[in-house]
Amino acid sequence: MNEDDASRGADAPPELVQLLTPEGERVEHPDYDIELTPEEVRSLYRDLVLVRRIDLEAVALQRQGELGIWASLLGQEAAQIGSGRALTDADMAFPTYREHGVAWCRDVDPVKLLGLFRGVNHGGWDPKEHNFHLYTIVIGSQTLHAVGYAMGIQRDDASAATIVYFGDGATSQGDVNESFIWASVFNAPIVFFCQNNQWAISEPLEKQSRIPLYRRASGFGFPGIRVDGNDVFACLAVTKKALEAARTGQGPTLIEAFTYRMGAHTTTDDPTRYRVASELEAWKLKDPIERVKAYLFKNELADQEFFDSVDAEADRLGADLRRRCLAMPDPEPLDIFDHVYREPHALIDQERAQFAAYLEGFRD
Ligand SMILES: Cc1ncc(C[n+]2csc(CCOP(=O)(O)OP(=O)(O)O)c2C)c(N)n1
Ligand SMILES: [Mg+2]
């Protein structure tokens, strides 16, 4: 998989692992096949629809002034559900700020994701309870945290792996490259899951790399693989295999999930200023949900009643999320000092006292 184009023979595996075409046709792959029961496929479809609905509701809440900002996952549902469902409870995931689908797989209540974007908390969930770290806005920094965690797993001799999410733009960060080196030389049990959504805000992929991102891995000494990031079956199969390799002492893998950010970078962004509409239209034909729906229909694995029931569940989820978002209490101003350090800290105490005195000045 890491050879140059010129050295790839006729029987070499295709550059992009795909198990389900955009038309909903199942295809075979020599290294990455997966057996899924009809029940499992229906369950993946449900996940995809529900996380898209959570995302849609969050965008609407931001537009109505109820969230400060939101980073949409639209178009990246399969990459996140496929990789998220590949994890075992013991595995640990480190997200960016866009991994709402992975959060769903880790049983994080979606209203807790909204708290951060509403500005009422600094994260909202206990990373240890879900084995899902807090969202990280500083691009690429979580890759170093994740490698450190993976090295801890290794030293505990635990049967678990770490997965870390980052974007195409993040691959240009020093932190990410340093984390590749550490993971490689220590043979850390980690999967680097890069969602190449083709854009880093307004910077296109060509500004990040002259070679496909997955091939970067060979320079660091571990395998890299590119998967169709809009194919939930392929993302599940490829991530499962990479996690198992990590758990069994075979070290890191870089997975490049080739996908597309169908929405704006965040709700503060206007992508019409830097990309053409035809690009989005082309990617709409590769929609991650439509192909699973087509597969279920064609193979008579689900009927209209099933699709209607998932839509109805999505409606209920959206309405419930909105209601609970609006009901989230604002924090007390002094609460901001409570979670800086685990132990009491003299400087924080001093700053809290100063701020309390300042607030007192507003009393009549
Ligand atoms: C260290 C750092 N530099 C710059 C930024 C500003 N910033 C926020 S998102 C972003 C682009 C990230 O692109 P990518 O890694 O492709 O992830 P995507 O948003 O596409 O999921 C940048 C530059 C930041 N948050 N952190
Ligand atoms: Mg990107």
Automatic annotation (TrEMBL):
<keyword id="KW-0560">Oxidoreductase</keyword>
<keyword id="KW-0786">Thiamine pyrophosphate</keyword>
<dbReference type="InterPro" id="IPR029061">
    <property type="entry name" value="THDP-binding"/>
</dbReference>
<dbReference type="InterPro" id="IPR050771">
    <property type="entry name" value="Alpha-ketoacid_DH_E1_comp"/>
</dbReference>
<feature type="domain" description="Dehydrogenase E1 component">
    <location>
        <begin position="49"/>
        <end position="315"/>
    </location>
</feature>
<keyword id="KW-0670">Pyruvate</keyword>
<dbReference type="InterPro" id="IPR001017">
    <property type="entry name" value="DH_E1"/>
</dbReference>
<dbReference type="Pfam" id="PF00676">
    <property type="entry name" value="E1_dh"/>
</dbReference>
<dbReference type="InterPro" id="IPR017596">
    <property type="entry name" value="PdhA/BkdA"/>
</dbReference>
<protein>
    <submittedName>
        <fullName>Pyruvate dehydrogenase (Acetyl-transferring) E1 component subunit alpha</fullName>
    </submittedName>
</protein>
